[in-house]
Structure formats: C-alpha cells, structure tokens
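Handout, page 2. Input:
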Amino acid sequence: MNKPSSQINSKSFEQTVKHEVDMALALSAQEFAWSRFLQHKLLSSPHEDPSYSSKILETSSCKQDGKEGAEIKKKLKELQKLVPGGEEMNMEEILSEVGSYIVCLELQMIVLKSLVQDNIS
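Output:
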C-alpha cells in the first residue's frame, strides 16, 4: 500500500524541522560535550544505530554495594542513552553534562511553544 504524497511530505517536513531544531540546540551550547556530539551526529549519518549501548558503565565499578549500587548503575545507563554522546562518557562526565543539556532542552521547548503560539494567533 502506497502512502499519499501529503503524508510523505509531512513526514519529510517533520524530519527537516526536527533536524534544524536539534542543530540549533547543538550550536547554542558548543562548550558542552553533548552539544559537540549532537552536532557531529547530525552532520554525519542520519541513520545512527539506536541499539548501540555503551560499555563504559558496564566496566566501571559502582561504589555502592548490592541492590542500591545496581539500581544506581541502571539509572546511569538510562541517563547515558538520553544525553547525546552519553554512551561515550564516564559517570563524572555524564553527571556534569546532564544539567546543561536539560537547561538547553527547556529553552528549546520555550522557543518552539512560542513559535507555535505565534502561528496559531
């Protein structure tokens, strides 16, 4: 079954907007590792393997013992997947980068909401 051209164009438009918004986010915070990674990713292959998982936390030792340590390690692995380039960062790096990434995402959300509201009015 073929998709109507309007659906294809809409999907292409959405992908283009997402790419441009992500690039603006990356360019707005170039002093952070996550930003440089995101910019590199956007400029290189658009078909990055999402199943890639880091071995950094798997090989690092967690200072907590038992169940609590395993839970912390699990949460840090999840965090690594959310931050661009997080798979390549160690625990210290990911924790220092996550704050700036969240702030930039919040600013991006404010700008996008503003654009949508301006277009609706």
